[in-house]
Design brief:
Blueprint lengths: L1 H12 L3 H4 L3 E5 L2 E6 L6 E5 L9 E3 L2 E3 L3 H16 L6 E5 L14 H4 L5 E7 L3 E2 L6 H9 L22 E9 L7 E3 H18 L11 H7 L1 E3 L6 E3 L20
Parallel strand pairs: 3-6, 3-7, 7-9
Antiparallel strand pairs: 1-2, 2-6, 4-5, 5-10, 8-9, 9-10, 11-12
Helix pairs in contact: 1-3
Length: 254
């Protein structure tokens, strides 16, 4: 595992400008959007923004750093998956995911629609969530390759329904995200990545169609961002489910 440390550290510390040269960068109203064309038939997504910053510290295979959400996912896409022999995939690096305005929304629909399906490594633990992309087919596929299917609130792929394809968000092995106690055991990260390599090898040529809904717009209209940790909150919630902070719209009653 020691051979991975330098690159994980680099990604946790790197500024946005370090990534601009990797692909075609578009500056949007919500920050940069970087599209890396590797000739792939599936699209990988990760976000560069984080809720706070700190120095990575290591104890064995365990790394602790606030930026692991989602710089660890960036490392998985740019370094780990290629080292494991994964089939080629294109990459979309985004900004403003942590405030619910992912720049993924600005990806040109024509470019987005040329992929067979999309995926992200921006999930705590080792399960898989699919948001509005979840149906019997996607659930069966995820379980077939060893993932338990869980529930999630928001990530970049939620802003890509205009692509007309299914999306998966896989566990990246970090825990306690949005806090200074955020950590990951790389053995968990690598196990998830290896499952994905098998899935991509079998399915990268299979198109998984998705009929876009109005779910995301409706969901956003009734939500806000936690002022402490950045979690997307349903306005019906009193406390943030991530950190326990009282939602802003309830502050007057506290």
């Amino acid at each position: 595992m020691r051979r991975y440390r330098d690159r994980v550290n680099w990604h946790c510390r790197a500024g946005f400008n370090k990534y601009r040269a990797l692909g075609e960068c578009t500056d949007t109203a919500d920050g940069p959007l970087i599209h890396i064309d590797n000739g792939g038939q599936i699209l990988a997504v990760a976000h560069l923004d984080a809720v706070g910053f700190g120095k990575p510290t290591w104890k064995g295979d365990r790394v602790q750093c606030m930026q692991l959400d989602d710089r660890l996912g960036v490392w998985v896409l740019l370094d780990l998956l290629p080292s494991l022999g994964c089939v080629p995939f294109d990459i979309l690096l985004t900004d403003s995911e942590e405030v619910g305005r992912s720049t993924a929304q600005y990806l040109d629909a024509e470019i987005a629609s040329r992929y067979n399906w999309m995926f992200e490594f921006d999930r705590a633990g080792s399960d898989c969530v699919m948001y509005d992309y979840e149906d019997e087919e996607t659930t069966t596929l995820a379980e077939q390759y060893g993932w338990a299917v869980g529930y999630g609130s928001f990530t970049d792929i939620c802003s890509l329904e205009h692509a007309g394809i299914k999306g998966f968000n896989f566990g990246t092995g970090y825990h306690n995200q949005h806090t200074h106690q955020c950590y990951a055991d790389l053995s968990e990260t690598i196990a998830s990545a290896k499952r994905f390599v098998d899935m991509a090898a079998d399915l990268h040529k299979v198109r998984l169609e998705h009929a876009a809904t109005e779910w995301y717009d409706a969901y956003s209209d009734r939500n806000e961002i936690c002022t402490y940790c950045g979690e997307l909150l349903d306005r019906e919630w009193y406390y943030c489910p991530m950190c326990g902070t009282v939602a802003a719209h309830h502050c007057d009653s506290v």
